[in-house]
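As a warm-up, study this chain.
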Amino acid sequence: MTSAVPQEVVCDETDVSALAARLTAEVNQIACEKTQGIQQITNQMKMLALNALIESARAGKEGAGFAVVAQEVRNVGQQVEAIARDLETQLTRRTKTLMCSLQQMTERAKGERMVDLALNAIELIDRNLYERTCDVRWWATDWAVVQCAAEPSASRASFASERLSVILNAYTVYLDLWLCDLNGNIVASARPRQFPVVGQNVAKAGWFIEAAKLRTGDDYVAGDVDRQPLLNNAQVSTYCASIRTEGRSHGKPIGVLAIHFDWERQARAIVRGVRVGSEDARVLLVDSHFRVIAASDDAGLLTERVVLDLQGRRSGYYTDQSGVQVAFHATPGYETYKGLGWYGVIISRPTRSPTE
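Now compare it with the structure written out below.
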């Protein structure tokens, strides 16, 4: 069985609010141009009226009647100018208000989409890791594994390794599978030639310490992402289950099965599968300490810590002081896998105003 590569999640770039904002900006520009044209015409009318008044004054009594008409033309021009000026002021104010509202709608719509995509990313990994918890509990009951843990011997360790190798060949999402005794000694592994780990002791590893405390065969340990020195320092997420007598759920613990999920390759496929419609956007998975454990740009893996302004929320979005929009969603878990407090995070630059 291989991991299903997630379908690309595409963010629709057909944004109605952005289109409306652009059209509003165009209307505002046209209105300003037309009112300016009206003002130019009224200025010409006023100039003609002034010239007419001058000529009527020169004509004396004969031009007196024409002077009245010229004065009325001048008055009409002033009224039209006042109306045009008021129209420009009102249109400009209202279109600016409308553009501001549409910009806010655009940013809100984008933020909500980003939250949905962040949720999608973390959900995909949750479902993937739920399968890992099922795998380790099932394989811990494999007869070859149980027999080797119950009565270790060279022949049984060899047979257990063969069996683990068969499993690993079918499940390509793992780097290696280890059978450990209760003292933390690795007794058998799936890839002994590639990773000569048999005989190594992992008793001080956090995942082994937790696995030794498991109460039943139905329980499991899900480890945070870390580098495993015995696997060429690869990034792995380790899952463990206790091996019990006769493979029974409540049997006596006789060993620990550890499976190492090939984290980097699988997680990269998920974060790069999220299409947010912006080259500047960065898709991340972060752990409960906000450490970057997966990034669409492969930067800061296991070293960078992201500052999230959660404000007590499990999901949401906000724009930070630098103008960068951040969307996040906490792990919802899946079935019996409750999650480890991880977050899906998308970081992107804000949408530019249509007038910019």
